[in-house]
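Lab notebook, bench 4. The sequencing result for the construct came back, and we need a structural model before the next group meeting so we can plan mutations. Quick request posted to the team channel:

Model the 3D structure of this chain.
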Amino acid sequence: MSERKIPHLTWLRAFEASARHLSFTNAAEELNLTQAAVSKQVKLLEQYLREPLFERKPRSLVLTKVGAAYLPKVRDSFDRLAAGTQEVFGNRRSEVLTVRAPVGYSVNWIAPRLQGFFDYKPGIQVRIVSSVWGDQFDAERFDLDIRYGSGRWSGFRSDRLTWEVITPVCAPELLHGPQPLHQPDDLAQHRLVHVMGYEEGWSDWLRAAGARKVDPGQGLQVDTSLLAFEFAARGGGVALARSSMLEPELERGRLVRPFTQEVPLSEAFHLLTPQHGGTHPDAALFRDWLLDTARTDVWNKRNREAQRA
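Done. Here's the predicted structure in token form:
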């Protein structure tokens, strides 16, 4: 590809603003530069083009014929660039409410319930951005953040969304295969699947279940619960599922619980709202809906458990 001969963007910006105001001084105020800097940038553009673009009058500027012919081309280029930027990235802060959430929680908890929010507020635009690791919150890209942990994050208001328990899951055929799973110690004959980033895991469940013959550190490590579920569903091992993400997997029938033992966890998913900085106008509505939905889930689960008892 041949090299494109394009003047520096700063020169073009100075020319466009100066032509619009017919004043280096007013253009400088708009661009937050000095009058001398704008004048110099226009001069460099004229030298690059080898044509004068303005006639310098004592109190004003006048476009030359060449400058008047060039100005629409420059403006059109800026308009196309602005339109292209809007098309790809949108007006993130003022139009679309952007929520970041772990990928497994997004797929298995938020997605099955999200239509409820649109039924509640059909005119609100939402962008869900999935994450694997809890990277630093970027207020320019996200309005709300969902993270897994203890609930203590500096600079954020934290609302708990889940009360988790963990339980093993596996493919149905593992229950009655060559090495069937009848009791927790039978896990010694199977690969354990670990999801990285969680403080509580296989060691806690095996201890509570009284499994003494199982090495809690053996097996496969993956970085998302979805990958752990997929590997387990294909018979590769036994994954440890958090209850908030388990229901869709059980409904699909690809995973089953070989044991009834559940272990409550201190960690959970939390909704984080920045304590400082601008707030999206729809953030409070989404937060209220999310918290109401999470509380309803907890109430329904406790009601089902009471009925079984």
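The CA atoms of residues 6 and 12 lie 10 Å apart.
Will bring this to the meeting.
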